[in-house]
Amino acid sequence: MRISDNVVARLKELGVEVRQGVSLTDLTSLGIGGTTDQLLLRRYETVPEVMRLLKDENIPHRFLGGGTNVLIADGELPWVVLHLPTAHPGVRIEGNAAYVDASADLGGMVTFCAKNNLGGMEGLIGVPGSVGGALRMNAGAYGTQFGPHVREVELYRAATGKIETLRGGDIRFDYRHTSFAPEDVMLRVKLELPSKPFKEILAGIKVCNEKRRSSQPLNQKSAGCIFKNPPGGSAGRMIDELGLKGHRVGDAMVSDRHANFFVNTGHASCTDMLKLIDEVRERVRTAYGVELENEVIVWRN
Ligand code: EPU
After folding, report:
1. Ligand 1 mean position to 71 CA, how many Å?
2. What pLDDT digit, counting tens, does each position of 248-281 carry?
């Protein structure tokens, strides 16, 4: 989708940088996605005004964080993408509290806190993506979840059109799911983390990194796990037991390392990946009577 020059000029007045005709294949870890205009929001406080302008001008939009858990349609996309440019490190420490920008890199944030002797997030070190994305989906790995550390969230709330602060206790954090509305935009989060010596945190990080390296296809293009685990079960194990590792549709393939990772081995399209997802879901349904739910977010056009 292309924004008119008139709207581009008004967005610029709000400090928004507009990049026209951007290919989202370069902005997602799967390397899949069509083309559209990208709006870089450099000033958090202007988010409500930008949203109002887009609404008034009838410009459909989606918010793209780290792009690591999303499968985006091919071709010219009928919406623009909004993005908060990555903050480095985007973290301020006060005692046991870490104030983190949603646009900070998750791994960078964990490392920064570790260097300040704040732990508890070791399991999340290898999870790719932004802090905002990890917050929104309550990312988790190796016994750590993001949600329990959250004390406050500053966000743009679609329901009110304003920037608000929510207390951690008022947010529901479930397995890979939270009570935020789809249109809400995460801006900042206050975490409370336990004090731990850097060396101890580092030892924990090394263990998680080793486990991850030995079981996940880290050097291939993926969106992490494609499906959520069903209650009490493992999607990866079921897909593996069905002999589907290496199964492919075009360049979209079930990883031969971890069966719940679907990788782009070259130039996979969104259509290829969706077909592979449907085929695998169907095989699991037939064999186990289990309906696998997507963990990856699909943006269709
Ligand atoms: N397994 C197989 N074959 C496979 C993959 C797994 O037999 O191809 C077996 C393993 O041997 C193990 C069991 O299935 O006995 C569980 O596997 P694993 O420990 O790899 O964990 P997982 O349930 O597949 C979850 C998260 C991962 C997270 C790891 C580590 C989900 C959907 N996945 O994977 O998170 O990194 O645990 O904590 O909850 C993600 O969310 O994108 C993700 C990668």
Report:
1. 20
2. 999 999 999 999 999 999 999 999 999 999 999 9
